[in-house]
Task: structure prediction
Amino acid sequence: MAIEKEIVISLPDGETDAVVLQPEGAGAWPGILFLTDIGGIRAAQRQMAGRLADEGYVVLMPNVFYRTAKPPVMDLAALRPNPEMFMARVRALAQPLTPEALERDAIGYVDTLSRLAAGQIGVVGFCICGGVAMRVAAACPDLVAAAASFHGGNLFEQKPESPHWLLPRIRARLLFGHAEGDRSMPAEAIAGFEQALRAWGGRFESQTYAAAHGWMTLDNPAYDADQAERGYAKLAALFRAELGDA
Result:
């Protein structure tokens, strides 16, 4: 079972809580940056990150939303039945996450993880943090060997801040798992995004799963165990290939 410890990371814009999960015993393990969905650090995300740590990785899970709140950043059980209140909280958490702010954070996260782990690192982001995972890969191209996004939203938009514009800066191997009928990443956006990935020319895999937004997350009503295992197998294979055998 993974060992957990709480740490505080000093960043240019303030301090953030974070969780470090690692295997028992002494060793030099590859590192994975685990970026939560909009619900932030909580039991389900710790369990998901712990599974990676059990396979032989040092996993760093920061509170991406530190500018707004400490964990728990929202009461999911109370807010999910009320879409208006839920979306209001989502907007409050997301508003400070500008591209410039996220790039500053990315460098701090990678620097912290690099001091805990051996070699290059991987990053995975869920939901809103799918795009953040791309920003981390773009901000630290020499250190990030693999990056993954599951049910990431707004990855391809005709806006200057759209994550797909970051592709020329990225050297990592990329993995994307999209959801069917996802309003934050509809089929036409997926098609445009995959065209941009092909034009980029790097190594990538992009797949749409027969599941709804949030299917990978243990405490999400959309969680789909079978499809989640398919996604996890892809993620584990990516990290094994690019970070070495854990």
